[in-house]
Design brief:
Length: 133
C-alpha cells in the first residue's frame, strides 16, 4: 500500500525534521567506534619512534654504535641459550644441579645489571613460543 504525501506543515507531522535527530549518523558518531583504534595506533607510532638522546635524533655514528651493541647482546644471548640447552640435556645432573649450573652460567655470561634483562628476554621468548622452549 502506498503512503500518500501530506501537505501539512512539519509541526503537524509525527516525524522529526531536525537534522540533529535524523536517522543518518553524523561524522562524529561514525568515527566514535574507531577512537580506541586511533589511540592505539598513535601510541604505537610514538613508541616506535627512533631512539633519541637529549631531545635530538641519533647521529649515524650513534645509531651504528647502538646497532652494534644490540648485535653483541643478541650474540651473547644466543650463546647463553645454547649452553643452557646443553645443561638441560645433561642427564647426569639432577634438577637442582641443573638450576645451579644455569644460574652460574648466567652470572658468568652477563654482568649483574644485565641479569634482569636476561630474565626479561627469556620470559619474552618463552611467551612468544607459547610456553614451549
Amino acid at each position: 500500500m502506498k503512503k500518500h504525501l501530506s501537505v501539512a506543515s512539519p509541526e503537524q507531522h509525527d516525524y522529526r525534521t531536525d537534522a540533529k535527530t535524523s536517522a543518518s549518523p553524523t561524522a562524529n558518531r561514525r568515527l566514535l567506534p574507531l577512537l580506541p583504534l586511533i589511540v592505539v595506533c598513535m601510541a604505537a607510532a610514538l613508541h616506535s619512534t627512533p631512539l633519541q638522546q637529549s631531545g635530538r635524533a641519533l647521529t649515524h655514528a650513534e645509531h651504528r654504535a647502538e646497532l652494534e651493541r644490540t648485535q653483541r647482546w643478541e650474540h651473547r644471548l644466543q650463546a647463553f641459550r645454547k649452553a643452557r640447552a646443553r645443561i638441560e640435556l645433561n642427564e647426569q645432573l639432577d634438577p637442582g644441579a641443573r638450576a645451579v649450573a644455569i644460574r652460574r652460567l648466567a652470572e658468568a655470561s652477563f654482568a649483574a645489571e644485565e641479569i634482569p634483562w636476561l630474565e626479561d628476554a627469556e620470559q619474552l621468548a618463552w611467551a612468544r613460543s607459547g610456553g614451549n622452549r
